[in-house]
Amino acid sequence: MRPLLVIGNKNYSSWSLRAWLVLREAAIEFDEQRITLDEPGTAEALDALGAARRVPVLKLGEETIWDSLAIAETVAERWPDRRLWPEDAQRRAHARSISAEMHSGFAALREQMPMNCRAMGRKVTLTDELSQDLDRVIAIWSDCRHRYNGDWLFGDFSIADAAYAPVALRMRTYGINLPESAAYYPQRLLQSAAMQEWLAAAEVEIEVIEHDEVGR
Ligand SMILES: N[C@@H](CCC(=O)N[C@@H](CS)C(=O)NCC(=O)O)C(=O)O
Which of 37, 66, 74, 204 is the most exposed place for a label (fewest CB within 10 A)? Predict the structure, then answer.
């Protein structure tokens, strides 16, 4: 059965990007359905998914899986040969820790630097909360580079990379200067064919969500 991934606008929906990237990097063939967010029909379309009124949602036959982390875990479990978590148990625990940290934290980063793939040259005020979030991301990326010396956070692509992909895009949009120890990461991510595909699709979307147009 061919999976169906329901996502939001590619330009703005960071949670959608996470689930989509997991499937793409795992080379799983899937269909895509896009629900445009923040429009008159959005609530009804999200309701019709029969889940948490949020995207992404993954449909596997009769099954509905929602929330990007649950989707990533389910894909990892159903396609074990794709090795979406590191094989080494300690590395895997570390990857899970930073993925969960991203999933439940970084409120200032989310609020003050919304993902806006096609926007460039935006500037935001670095509040204390935002600076703390950015410092923490830099520490995580630097630590992974130091410990595993790979281009992806844990050597090969893992779910942790999907968790941090939208953050790397935010660094680009808002022109955040990164130390060399962390700058490798957005560079690597942007080189991936999957990310190029996502960005090209975001570029041609016509919807504008004013709330997410920050820093002009
Ligand atoms: N924790 C959820 C968050 C999902 C979420 O907040 N998705 C946003 C889009 S990025 C959404 O569907 N918002 C509903 C709306 O804008 O009406 C996940 O990881 O999937």
Answer: 204
Q: Cα of 146 to ligand 1 centre, how many Å?
A: 33
Spell out, as residue ranges, where the chain has pLDDT lower than 70: none
Name the pairing type of β-strands 57-60 and 63-66.
Answer: antiparallel
Task: Indicate the top mutation candidate among 12, 53, 54 to test ligand 1's pocket, ranked by most ligand atoms within 8 A of CB.
Answer: 54
Q: What are the chain's domains? A: 4-82+200-211 (3.40.30.10), 89-199 (1.20.1050.10)
For the chain, how are helix, strand and coil distributed in percent, rounded to 5?
Answer: 55, 10, 35
- Tens digits of per-residue pLDDT, 132-189? 999 999 999 999 999 999 989 999 999 999 999 999 999 999 999 999 999 999 999 9
Contact (CB, 8 A) for 156 and 83: yes
Query: What's the confidence (pLDDT) of residue 124?
Result: 98
User: Would you state the structure tokens that stand for residue 92, as one six-digit string?
Assistant: 């895997």
Q: Is the CB of 173 under 6 A from ligand 1?
A: no
9 lines ligand 1 (CB under 6 A): no
Ligand 1 centroid from CA 15, angstroms: 6
